[in-house]
Structures are given as structure tokens and as C-alpha cells.
Design a protein that fits this description.
two-stranded antiparallel sheet; globular; mainly beta
Amino acid sequence: MPYSVKSKKNGEDYYLHATTSETKSGSRTLYYFAKQVKEGAALDELPDGYEPSESPNGLIVLKKKVKE
């Protein structure tokens, strides 16, 4: 079951996805949320050290956890 977050602004579910892109310095994993599950890109759990956050305009993103 893909990891999902319910938006506080509109009440819709958003599913966590990841994709890998090549850069000059190597490969990089990009995380994003989408309304629909995309096969092969959906993740079942959050990556270590990250937590979901919702901006005032309703955009859900991953943020690094603050170290205590």
C-alpha cells in the first residue's frame, strides 16, 4: 500500500513517489506527492530522516527532520 497523506486544506489523499535523475555530480532521488498512484514510482514508506509537511497553499512536500 503506497504511503499517503491527507491534505488539511482540501481533504484529498496524496501518495508519495520517487524518481531518480542523473546530474553532473551523479544520480539524485527526487521525492514528490501525487493525487494518483503511479506504478513503479510509488513508495510504501517515508525515506529515513524525512517527514511530510503542508504549505499554507496546500502543497505537500517532504522536509528533513530537525535533529534534536
